[in-house]
């Protein structure tokens, strides 16, 4: 008597075809997705395909970063509903399993301290790519864009340096990119904070601001 096949017993090749077809539907391009929760096998087979249709969307600034998976065409100045803080994201076991499959990172317009209003999109071409370099594209929101070209060039240089020739995404790379956006590359949090305090003190001295002047704002 022949054994009737089930979805679980189908060969991996058929699973991949099914997932390719499933995730072509924009309604299925979302995270979390029920398919990822079926088993570790379905997670390992379906995640790389799903994440080809999603991007790691990064919002916030040096004070607090929020990350989420969103459709490639998603773009908003408002925080996505399923976003989580960086400290939570980086320690989540599922995020650690998914991060190597991320193909696109998108920093929203308000996330760069050097050039307010610039969007940065990084596309990884995968571990099998031999000659195709990673792609970094920039888009300027003219309403918020600072016209200082030097800041724009500095931002591009820092992002390109951090991405380098990385074949895939990784947690430490995401952290370095966020530091590049916040102007903290190569510095500890303490060193960056001390630099900010010095700049703020110099500004106060230049403008004659006294400690008591802040009481009106408390």
Concise summary:
With 218 residues, the protein is α+β, with helices and mostly antiparallel strands. It contains seven helices and six strands; from the N terminus they run ααβββααβββααα.
What would your notes on this structure say?
This protein has 218 residues and is of the alpha+beta class. The protein has two domains: 10-50, no CATH class; 55-210, no CATH class. The chain has seven helices and six strands, in the order ααβββααβββααα. It has helices at 12-22, 40-50, 86-91, 93-98, 149-163, 171-182, 189-207; strands spanning 54-60, 65-71, 84-85, 104-107, 118-123, 135-140. It has a six-stranded mixed sheet with strand order 3-2-1-4-5-6. A hairpin with a 4-residue loop joins β1 and β2 (65-71). The model is unreliable at 214-218 (pLDDT under 50).
Keywords, separated by commas or semicolons:
six-stranded mixed β-sheet, 7 helices, 6 strands, elongated, 37% helix, 218 residues, 2 domains
